[in-house]
Amino acid sequence: MRFNDILGHSKALGIIGAYLEKSRFSGAYIFSGPEGIGKRMVAKIIAAQLNCTGQVDRPCGSCSCCLKIQKETHPDLHIIQNGQSQIKMEDIRGILRQANFRPYEGAVKVFIIDNAHKLNSEAANSLLKVLEEPPKDVLIILVTHKPQNIIKTVLSRCKVIKFSPLIRAQLETVLIKNYALDKATAHFLAFYAEGRLGLALRLKDTPLLQEKNKIFDSFILSAKPLDHNIMNQSKEQLQVCLNILASWFRDIYLLKCGASDKETIHLDRHSDLLKLIPRFSFKQLDDIMATLSESSLYLEKNINSKLLLHNLGAQLWKA
Ligand SMILES: [Zn+2]
Q1: How many domains does the chain have?
Q2: Torsion from C-alpha of 133, 134, 140, 146, nearest 10 degrees
Q3: What is the C-alpha to C-alpha distance for residues 129 and 165, in angstroms, rounded to an integer?
Q4: Half-sphere exposure of 61 toward its Cβ, with a 13 Å CA cutoff?
Q5: Ligand 1 centroid to 143 CA: how many Å?
Q6: Are residues 153 and 236 in the same domain?
Q7: How many angstroms does the Cα of residue 44 sit away from the middle of ligand 1?
Q8: What is the CATH number of the domain that holds 235?
């Protein structure tokens, strides 16, 4: 966990750095921006930077403080996260209590409230005082991809820092350099995740890369019906399958338009994609992509997924 990991967020980091220096490393912030782009990781890296005991290049990533923050076991790092449901009063009571104590081990206590838009009104209101005047050596970071759902009184007490996804090529470089991924995998993840580092890292340990080639080989390249394994998947898995199909047809469309191979998501299958260009007209590709996007919506609404895939298959084989 080093600053290298967050290449591309330099503007946001510059703003935070200036604020932190002015406020003597305390204050309340909202990190806002699309899901999965590394906001929470930046918050942790700032916690590490403020508490690192290394002599140069803080956070050093190797002192005991940095390691504990990375593992989220440091006594001065408090992360509040609450899966699907609301963040309630009892979840943040600890912040209100802990904020008044001096740091145990490090220099600054850091509280990160992940998915802060899930704070219910009672919890949000109880935070107002500590957000207004955070005690010395206390940094509170609210992380959210839905700032519009945070009550105005909370918003107005925090400095809002906006984050954007990385440029896809930047993310590809980060994945190769910092996560030792091969070029084909890094390229696919960077493009499929649309520059969102957090999402790319979550996907990297899933069988997505093999799955996407399996779907391509069996369903698109050889134009065979979807096999039962795909048909019987859960709604979530089917949604992934539809997204993958859409990404293949997006690539065929782009290549047919004359886009460079680097623009394709599935660079590893570039030569196979080129073979498919004559098989589909622009009209057919438009129709297929419209069907895929409709299918996605139907799936959300729990419409019979088998029928849906059958219809989709029929349209593809016709093509
Ligand atoms: Zn360190």
Answers
A1: 2
A2: -10
A3: 32
A4: 7
A5: 23
A6: no
A7: 12
A8: 1.20.272
